[in-house]
């Protein structure tokens, strides 16, 4: 009997061991975060052209960070554009465990998500910046860009946001690794720039990998005016 009509089971992520941080000065961290922000965006022609700049800029970084960023940059510049774009959408827009929206991992599809997004907006304002509305404010590349381009205050505030949502970043790393995604090295490079994972964070990561974020399926209608984000804002998708 053929069972070809049945859907193939998804690849289950497993919690990975934390990566040991790599010492970086402020400039090196800014270069690494800006490089990751560029490489994690949708690989249109502009982003793929910028990847070549990332490859050059990352040359002076410590090898563990440099090799991950330059390897992904080369994959983006040399790869087939249509295939890369299709894989990006299939990964980040259609798989909830690969969401690049940091508050989603902690708040999920609950009423707490709106309040979490407001806190991101307030954090940007404290650094002297306003979000444009093109993405939800907890979008990881936006936080990384704040770290890289926001000056001392921006770097400090972005660092606090990244640390507060470290469990979500680790879940994203685990999910991308399970999918053997070409974007895994960019998340690894970010993790290498952050503080070590403590025991409490490791426990939350294990829980999230196993169960996923909380859900009430209430949507985000209470946040902002017209901000909808990408398809992976969590609505009507399985935890897969």
TrEMBL record:
Gene3D superfamilies, per database record: TorD-like (1.10.3480.10)
GO MF, one annotated term: metallochaperone activity
NCBIfam families linked to this entry: narJ
Biological processes per GO annotation: chaperone-mediated protein complex assembly; nitrate assimilation
Name of the molecule in the record: Respiratory nitrate reductase chaperone NarJ
SUPFAM superfamilies in alphabetical order: TorD-like
Region (Disordered), start-end ranges: 221-240
Source organism (scientific name): Krasilnikoviella flava
Sequence ranges of Basic and acidic residues compositional bias: 230-240
Keyword terms of this UniProt record: Nitrate assimilation
Superkingdom of this protein's organism: Bacteria
